[in-house]
Design brief:
37 helices, alpha+beta, 9-stranded mixed beta sheet, globular
Length: about 1000
């Protein structure tokens, strides 16, 4: 008899912990082995399929954990243990406690709440009974969790909050404690305080480790020696350094031996009661609110958290010193790190070099806090466990010596900061200890000093590049380089110092000429020389959107195999806590390209993405870019059109790009009459640039950049007080008649004004001077009459718009707009108009926040009935252009409006016989069976976007199953659905 909980079944993603053999892949096997320690009954997994023909999922994520325990009472110690573990590990969304007479669902994305001093409650984390009844009645739980749309339901938006994640929750508290420490302990340097706090976290982690079936802690022997019961008591009795000294002696490797003699003397003299208070979490001194370590289960808190703590400490220290954010240092969020590791080190099919010889060397060239290396090491340990399980049938991790050997032989990092090296070693130590029992830790583990070989400090200023040169000369080689290199040198350094010409020359980079001398790309170029493959975060503009990078892009895509580009440009605000930068994750193999297409995946905003739970990627986010398009400067905008939806938009923009441009038109006019001038306005320049007198500018009324353009009154003016200018431009540019355009996109037109008097303007404007006013009127009228088209064109081709600027353009954007004469008329089809309208109404907001009152929310509103009708009309119209004949046409049928998704039916048959009907909350049995038919649709089950084919009552039908958010039902999406449906039919011979 098959098990069913809500509508979770063993056929759609539910795996019973007692039947781990039913797991479909290694992701499921590993998680089941972990959660069994909590005595879980079952886990519902979200499964991912590469093709709809696949029988087994290639990857899975746990999303719901089930406990079948009748005697687990709300707020009982057992219940709080479950919640602390699941919240701390931050992997699942909800958990279910079920018995004979109850089924309660709890939010695993929020911590237990304090109700009284030193007492916690999880009662308010229970979802209301009505919500549970709806999930059960509508049979929607499997769909919501299986597609990752549970948090996207309006009623669940406020049930998930980044600030309630275990990482942010802990880090926020630590930052407040650190501030208090700094204020109270003036005799200690901030770096010493950082060591105290991070080492205390590591000791607390060890203290919580228990041998299976006992209460024996890793630190019991040390505590007994000093006649204390806990680390807090040791601190209170002045034994802080004693405990660390014993740990240092026991483990070697200088992991716990971090203080200088002077620091030790200073620590001995100060009152560490604040540290004891912090470890006991008696109160949060800044808010007078209790912070309870009992909310956490340190046995389940990921080792990467120590790395996150350090990165926040660095940024806080930079601000304390009045430097603002530390230049070049960017905190890489843990969910991005895990995403990248999953992509380049998948659990399935571990590489032969590791399974046979235990070797898969990973390097982070700028390891920072070591968050990438910690994740990579954890994956190596998982690979080992998977490989061994094939022999034994059981998931077991290596013993202490093997685990240590895997670390020492495979994990390597470089950084110019000594603190970074230290904290990376902390993180790796925590990850290693995480897999061992106290008995193994205490009796068998002797650390090596990882700072001598594995995690090394590279001397400034040449840092990694000098290290890479030495590694190259020593013939060192790595399987994988992974990381997030700095985009700028540190504040006290410069590109010239770091990129020492002699070192760079000796390195012999394959592409020494890097566009705009981009700092991150230098790290990429030096790293790829040492590795088989690389996965690195790179500024998006430098690689994809900068038009000046065309030659470099061709060389890069020719000399190496670029398999995947994950584009996070839409997340430019919020992905990184300390930066506002569009980035891509580039996956490259160190072998010459065979000119295969490149997977360009555009990651869009969802609630889960904004709350940093996971990245959601669906079919509409994936774009296959032909190699020759990727390297063709005339098709460079393919990346930008993908960013804005892809599909037919590329072809529309390409056709427009073949028309004459405004720049070409003006230059032809200039050939006829040399008095034509087309230029940006004057530039004042900085204090170090050479400057020139320009009396025709000084003291004159120039256009005011601070006041908005008024459509009736035109531009405002301000007196130009500067006497010298770096680029004053020729006086004739400002003479009448002159058409002046602001470098900004307005709602209805580019702000512009025709002047018949002399009018200066600065570099924020572009001017066109012509002998005849009529010629300028023609240009002005053309731009106004075709503004929607021209605006869309600039959005789809500009290197800056929607990348690092929202509405600001540059002269180059104006240069390239299509300027059609009578001989080159612009013709727009109805399909093209749909693309333009959706781009300007919806896709323009893809990079904006999606919270209630933000611009991006429009894409996530529930689709309305009228919008669904319009979607179907476009879809059927496109297919009928190909297939309609002999009185048979595509037409819309039933539309099933379910609470979490919509099923839209279209059918081909006798015209007018398939009537559109909207059905609320209830699927026909035949449709439900079609969706759940494992034999034919297993690969499609619970994907966000599904197309199913069936024959019903004389009609060949297609069913589109998608979430209710408007972005899935736009008319431009109907065009894409029509194209992909046609491709399916063509592949089947229709």
């Amino acid at each position: 008899m098959k098990t069913q909980i809500l509508d979770f079944t063993e056929n759609n993603g539910l795996v019973l912990c007692s039947k781990a053999s039913a797991a479909q892949n290694n992701y499921e096997r590993l998680y089941i082995s972990e959660v069994k320690k909590l005595n879980a009954y079952a886990v519902f997994f979200r499964r991912f399929f590469k093709t709809k023909e696949d029988i087994a999922a290639y990857k899975s994520e746990p999303v719901v954990c089930v406990f079948q325990e009748e005697d687990v009472l709300v707020n009982s110690p057992r219940h709080k243990e479950i919640h602390a573990a699941l919240w701390s590990e931050s992997k699942i969304d909800v958990y279910i406690i079920t018995g004979k007479t109850r089924l309660n669902i709890y939010n695993a994305r929020k911590p237990a709440e304090r109700i009284r001093e030193n007492e916690l409650s999880v009662e308010k984390l229970k979802f209301p009974l009505d919500a549970v009844k709806v999930l059960d009645k509508k049979r929607s739980a499997a769909h919501l969790f299986g597609t990752g749309t549970f948090w996207e339901q309006i009623e669940n938006h406020n049930q998930i909050n980044l600030d309630k994640s275990p990482y942010v929750h802990l880090i926020n508290y630590l930052m407040k404690v650190r501030k208090d420490f700094n204020e109270r302990s003036k005799k200690l340097e901030p770096e010493t305080i950082d060591k105290i706090l991070v080492l205390s976290i590591l000791v607390k982690f060890l203290e919580e480790k228990k041998d299976s079936g006992t209460d024996r802690s890793t630190l019991d022997e040390i505590f007994s020696k000093y006649q204390v019961q806990s680390f807090i008591e040791a601190v209170e009795k002045g034994k802080f350094l004693n405990v660390l000294g014993d740990l240092s002696t026991e483990f070697n490797g200088r992991v716990f031996d971090q203080f200088t003699l002077l620091e030790k003397e200073q620590i001995e003299k100060i009152d560490l009661s604040l540290l004891a208070q912090f470890l006991g979490a008696e109160s949060d001194l800044s808010t007078q609110q209790l912070f309870l370590w009992k909310q956490y289960s340190f046995q389940h808190l990921p080792a990467e958290v120590i790395s996150a703590i350090y990165e926040n400490f660095i940024q806080e220290e930079a601000q304390r010193d009045g430097k603002g954010r530390e230049k070049g240092v960017v905190y890489t969020p843990i969910h991005l790190v895990n995403f990248m590791v999953d992509e380049v080190m998948p659990l399935e099919n571990p590489p032969a070099s590791f399974t046979e010889n235990g070797i898969y060397k990973v390097l982070d060239p700028t390891c920072g806090s070591g968050v990438f290396l910690v994740a990579a090491y954890k994956r190596l340990m998982q690979w080992w466990a998977i490989t061994e399980s094939e022999k034994t049938g059981e998931i077991l991790y290596p013993d202490a010596r093997t685990a240590q050997k895997i670390l020492e032989e495979n994990i390597f990092g470089v950084d110019v900061k000594r603190t970074a090296v230290r904290v990376t070693i902390f993180g790796l130590t925590t990850a290693l200890l995480d897999y061992l029992t106290p008995k193994e830790v205490w009796g068998e583990l002797k650390f090596q000093d990882l700072s001598t070989k594995n995690i090394v400090e590279a001397k400034p200023h040449t840092g990694f590049f000098q290290w890479a040169l030495e590694a190259k000369n020593e013939n060192r080689h790595f399987s994988l380089v992974i990381g997030n290199p700095p985009f700028n040198p540190e504040k006290k350094s410069s590109k010239q110092k770091v990129l020492d010409e002699h070192v760079i020359s000796d390195l012999g980079l394959k592409h020494p000429s890097i566009p705009r001398k981009n700092f991150a790309l230098h790290f990429f170029e030096a790293s790829i020389m040492l590795a088989d493959s690389i996965c690195m975060i790179i500024p998006a503009n430098a690689l994809l959107y900068d038009k000046s990078a065309g030659n470099y892009r061709r060389e890069l895509f020719t000399d190496y195999t670029i398999s995947d580009i994950y584009d996070f440009t839409h997340l430019r605000r919020g992905l990184f806590a300390s930066a506002d930068t569009p980035v891509v994750a580039l996956i490259v193999s160190n072998r010459a390209s065979e000119f295969q297409p490149i997977n360009h995946t555009v990651v869009k905003r969802t609630i889960s993405v904004e709350q940093k739970v996971r990245f959601e990627i669906d079919e509409y986010d994936r774009h296959l870019v032909k190699w020759d398009w990727a390297v063709d400067p005339k098709k460079q905008f393919v990346w930008k059109t993908n960013l804005l939806g892809g599909g037919r938009l590329f072809h529309l923009i390409h056709n427009l790009s073949l028309l004459p441009t405004l720049k070409r038109y003006i230059y032809r006019k200039k050939e006829e009459n040399s008095k034509w001038i087309y230029s940006s306005g004057y530039k004042v320049g900085g204090s170090t640039t050479k400057k020139y007198l320009a009396p025709y500018l000084t003291g004159k009324n120039t256009l005011d950049t601070k006041r908005k353009f008024n459509r009736e009154l035109g531009f405002s003016f301000v007196e130009e007080i500067n006497k010298e200018f770096e680029a004053p431009r020729t006086k004739e540019l400002y003479e009448p008649p002159v058409l002046i355009l602001a470098e900004v996109l307005g709602l209805e037109s580019i702000p512009m004004q025709l002047f018949t008097n002399s009018q200066p303007f600065n570099i924020s404007f572009v001017g066109i001077h012509a002998p005849l006013k009529e010629d300028l009127i023609k240009i002005k009228s053309y731009i106004e009459d075709n503004y929607k088209l021209l605006k869309a064109y600039m959005l789809a081709t500009s290197s800056k718009l929607l990348i690092n600027k929202e509405t600001t353009i540059v002269k180059e954007d104006l240069d390239m707009i299509p300027f059609a004469t009578k001989e080159d008329l612009i013709t727009i089809s109805s399909a093209d108009q749909i693309l333009l309208d959706d781009l300007l109404t919806y896709e323009i907001h893809l990079g904006k926040a999606i919270t209630k009152n933000s611009s991006g929310a429009i894409l996530h509103h529930p689709v309305k009935e009228k919008q669904l009708q319009e979607y179907g009309e476009v879809l059927c119209s496109e297919l009928n252009d190909i297939y309609a004949k002999d009185g048979n046409r595509w037409q819309s049928g039933k539309v099933y409006r379910m609470p979490s998704y919509t099923v839209y039916q279209i059918g081909f048959g006798v015209d007018g016989k398939l009537k559109q009907e909207f059905v609320d909350d209830q699927l026909d049995d035949s449709i439900e069976n079609l969706i759940k038919n494992d034999a034919t649709n297993r690969g499609a089950a619970y994907k966000r976007i599904v197309r199913l084919y069936d024959h019903v009552d004389g009609f060949d039908c297609v069913y589109f199953i998608k979430p209710n958010a408007l972005r899935y039902w736009l008319k431009s999406i109907a065009l894409r659905d029509a194209d992909e449906t046609f491709s399916d039919f063509k592949a089947e011979g229709y």
